[in-house]
Amino acid sequence: MIQELKGKIIEVLNLEDVTPEDIDNDAPLFGEGLGLDSIDALELIVMMEKEYGIKLKNPAEGKEIFKSVSVMAQYVNEHRTK
Amino acid sequence: MGTNVVKVIAHHAITPLADGSHENYCLVKQGCSAVQHHSGKDWKLTEDFMAGLIATPFATPRATNMALHSIRKAMAQLTQPLPTDDTLLIISTTKGNIDLINGENETPVRLGAMAEDIARQLGFTKRPIVVSNACTSGVCAQVAAQRVLQGGLCHYVIVCGVEAQSRFIVSGFQSFHALSPERCRPFSANREGLNVGEAAATIIYTLSNEVKPKDWLLQAGAIRNDANHISGPSRTGEGSYRALRMVMAEAEVDDLAFISVHGTATPYNDEMESIAVDRAGLLDVPLCSLKGYYGHTMGAAGVLETILSMEALEDATVPATLGYDDQLGVSHPVAVASTNRETDKQSFIKLISGFGGCNAAIRMQRGKREAIETNAAIDTIETIKADITLSPKSVILNGQVLPMTKTGDALLTECYRSSHADYPKFFKMDPLCRLGFVASELLLQSVAEERFVAREDRAVVLTSCRGCLHTDRHYESTIVPGDNYFPSPAVFVYTLPNIVTGEIAIRNKYLGETSMYLFEETTDENERIQILKKLTFQDPMTTSALIGWVDYQDNDHFLAKLYLISNT
In which region does residue A35 sit, left (phi positive, over 0), alpha (psi from -120 to 50) or beta (all else)? Predict the structure, then answer.
């Protein structure tokens, strides 16, 4: 799941020069490293719904879920409906 | 004889509440709201929404006919028949007839073509101008009106702001989680977002040296960029603060009755405005947001809210901020109120901000002549410091053909790589922004100047024919009704033609003016450049500008032709 998520993150956020190895499993997704912003967070919410059928009612929940790819993977595994 | 002033000679607004400026104001004064609940199902959306929608059936193309209605009603108030040969039409809109995006003919969706259609139907002989600076368009259009009048391009200007709502726009704001599930509550602690609305509003301006006590004068206008983010309001209120500072340069704070703020009721917008108002030293001036009455009417908002502000002061009233619950939810103690207040002052500011980091303000004053500060350099000869022409098969920089191997979209990426710009955001941009970005990057790298230092003296003023039509189609593909309905916020944000000017401002830390004007391709390039120069160099702080043309049709058809010009 972690590898799958990394691939999808790179794809939907157009991280052209980033490889899955560049994304640390436990580093904050919205920290310094990847340079992601608020639009990227919204786009990840769309991705979770489109790919895994997870609908977040409140975008603020994303803050917890996007703490790291590991946290995100765990959340997807627990909540996915497709 | 004195200096000429820019004054209002007629205005009209049609909204869901009423047809007519005064009729609208009377309902505002009573606290009526146009914002109602609408079923998402009826619009093939997954969620319901609150909006202010006009019930009057306007024929297709709807935005065009809304504008025609309002302009005709405004012109009918005048004793002299307009348009004369020296009357210019300026249309302000963000998405025009975007509801026709799936039609076979793209013409009504092109904003320049929409304006030419309106101008033709009304008998204008001058070519119209379209201002599309996201939600600031209506104020920017009035700034443009002031400049074309003072620049001697015409004697009358008809400014019409128009926005028709569509599932395109509503789904986009839903994808941004920006819509309030209830009527919006500007500046309140419990505000949850904005409501969208629709309106057409028209103001007719003329140049005159005669001022009567009842005349409204457009005294000052400014447009400034945050150079911060394409959708997020600046945490320092940078552009709004600078626009306020510009329009207050020659004015006394004590003369201001109120500031008609943007006040969309999103958490970040209202907070940003409170910071900007504080930084500008205007905390004691009453504020009012009109969004609770109409929702956010986008391209019409700047014009509609200017009209209502004039009507309110003619009635000696600072309008209540409908939806404000007296629990201030911003960090700076701004003077917003839930009830109408009396005033005997005769001057106000209309402030507005929008995607692309743009902010704009105008200051209106009644019955009092003020010497208008214009840039003495207007008539000096501008010099071209550098130029670039970028098309799918070639890049010509300052007369030299650059050796490139790729074509089309791949050429844009090759330009990015060859410019050695370490700016991964490039890959998130839509094609129009990529085109404008790499062209500006190569151009600016070719001149000897220090880059990436914050500066307010450089403007970015571009023109386009198709604007973001290519990205509009991309976004539309994400909102096909059914199982594949996943509106993309990252695509939606690029469906505003001015974003390219914002991207260039952010990259270069340009805090000056950014603007996007749309013209049909058939316009003569020299004519466009002359108009751009007139529009650009009247800002007293602007000494150089990146101006030109940026148009993207598809992989095989695009053109950027940019100039760096200076008046020093």
Answer: left
Examine residue B372 and state whether it is found in any structural domain, yes or no: no
Q: Which residues contact A63 (CB under 8 A, 6 or more apart)?
A: none
pLDDT of residue B568: 76
What was the pLDDT predicted at B1?
38
Query: Taking a C-beta distance cutoff of 8 angstroms, is the pair B218, B362 a contact?
Result: yes
C-alpha distance from B428 to closest chain A C-alpha (Å): 6
Extract the tokens encoding A74.
């765990």
Domains held by chain B: number: 2
Nearest-Cα distance to chain A for B274, in Å, is 21
A residues 14-73 lying closer than 8 A (beta carbon) to B: 14-18, 35, 37-40, 42-43, 46, 49-50, 59
Partners of B175 on chain A (C-beta within 8 Å) are 42, 46
CATH assignment at residue B57: 3.40.47.10
B444 & B341 share domain = no
Residue A42 has its nearest CB partner, among B175, B427, B428, at B175
d(CA B551, CA B544): 22
pLDDT in tens, B429-447: 999 999 999 999 999 999 9
The pTM score is 0.96
Is B47 within the bounds of a domain? yes
Q: Do A37 and B232 touch (CB under 8 A)?
A: yes
Contact B490 A15 (CB under 8 A): no
Q: Which helix (H) or strand (E) holds B503?
A: helix B499-508
Give the Cα separation of B23 and B342 in Å (integer): 20
ipTM of the complex: 0.93
Residues of A in contact with B177 (CB under 8 A): 42, 59
CB contact under 8 A, B229 and A37: yes
Indicate if B412 and B291 belong to the same structural domain: no
DSSP per-residue letters across B250-269: T--GGG--EEE------HHH
- pLDDT given at position B373: 52
| End position of a domain, from candidates B342, B366, B390 | B366
**Chain A neighbors of B178, CB-CB under 8 A:** none
- Name which of B424, B427, B490 is nearest A39 (Cβ-Cβ): B490
Contact predicate B153/B531, CB 8 Å: yes
pLDDT tens across B281-336, in order?
Answer: 999 999 999 999 999 999 999 999 999 999 999 999 999 999 999 999 999 999 99
Whether B377 is covered by a domain: the verdict is no
β-strand B358-366 against B216-225: which pairing, if any? Answer: antiparallel
Which residues of chain B carry a pLDDT beneath 70?
1-2, 370-380
**B460 and B322 housed in the same domain:** no
Verify whether the Cβ–Cβ distance A42 to B490 is below 8 Å.
yes
**Cβ contact, residue pair B427, A15, below 8 Å:** yes
What is the extent of the structural domain holding B478? 382-567
In this complex, do B488 and A46 lie within 8 Å of one another by their Cβ atoms? yes
Question: Is residue B476 assigned to a domain?
Answer: yes
The pLDDT assigned to B377 comes to 44
Q: Does A32 score more than 50 pLDDT?
A: yes
